[in-house]
Amino acid sequence: MAWQWYHDTFEPGEVHLHALTGVIATRKTKYQTVEIVESEHYGKMLILDGDCQSSVKDEYIYHECLNEPAMVCHPDPRRVLVVGGGEGASLRELLRFKSVEHIDMCDIDEEANQCMNSTCRSIIRVHFMTPRSVCTSRTPASSSSVNLTTPTALSLKI
Question: Which residues pair with 55 in a beta bridge?
Answer without folding.
Answer: 45
